[in-house]
Write a structure and sequence with these properties.
234 residues; Protein Transport Mog1p, Chain A; 10 strands
Length: 234
């Protein structure tokens, strides 16, 4: 494992030098607060509706790039209005509690990862916890039926679910430039970095306390470097 990490690190250092010469450029979205190196062509941007684990429908955006047979996508799903969206749906008596709109957010990475694992004919070759700039998430590597390979990274940051997916054709090298340049942006467009591992903080409840089992004050998060510490009401 150590040797693989050293090889990966060496590849990243090598790849970082000729980034633009290889036809890649930095893409940043201030609307969805992310950045990543992608093929130097304008993305195809599509607005979507994402059906969650508890069958709420959330707004999302898919950014797509194509480079020959290789595909690069960033999907961003906005879970920030989960309480109102979930409450507006009709649910059985067993699924009326506040906990379920919160679980929809907290379980969004696991749910999205399951959608990849359950695709017909795929073989998952890597499936583990991951983080970038101390923002926690999950990483999958998948061999598809046509022998292309998908490298998928999923993160939940400020109640947005991010799905980075690079799929390379059979025999093509891993998409290191794409994988190693993902970042999340603050309101000023600066890369977000944390003092310790970041876990998403749930939005505050607005429609009442709901049933027991809803959880406490809305989740756990950490403070970015340079920002004042978070405060909680008494």
């Amino acid at each position: 494992m150590r040797s693989l990490r050293l090889v990966a690190a060496a590849c990243v250092l090598f790849a970082a030098q000729p980034l633009f010469a290889q036809g890649f450029t930095e893409y940043r979205s201030m609307e969805d607060r992310f950045g990543v190196a992608v093929p130097a062509t304008p993305p195809t941007i599509e607005k979507i509706k994402w059906k969650s684990e508890y069958e709420s429908i959330f707004p999302g955006t898919v950014y797509k790039w194509q480079a020959g047979a290789n595909r690069y996508t960033v999907t961003v799903i906005d879970y920030s209005d989960s309480e109102a969206i979930y409450t507006a749906n009709h649910h059985s008596e067993d699924f009326q509690g506040t906990a379920y709109w919160q679980i929809d957010i907290l379980g969004s990475i696991a749910y999205a990862a399951t959608q990849y694992r359950q695709k017909p004919g795929v073989k998952v070759t890597y499936d583990a916890f991951h983080y970038i700039n101390l923002i926690t998430g999950h990483e999958l590597q998948i061999t598809n039926p046509d022998e292309s390979r998908s490298f998928v990274a999923l993160y939940l940051h400020e109640n947005r679910l991010y799905i980075f997916d690079a799929t390379v054709a059979k025999g093509q090298p891993p998409p290191l430039i794409f994988n190693q340049t993902m970042e999340f942006l603050d309101a000023d467009g600066k890369s977000v970095r944390y003092r310790t591992y970041y876990y998403n903080r749930l939005p505050e409840r607005k429609l009442g306390a709901g049933r027991a089992g809803a959880g406490g004050d809305g989740g756990v998060g950490t403070t970015p470097v340079g920002a004042p510490p978070a405060t909680r009401p008494n």
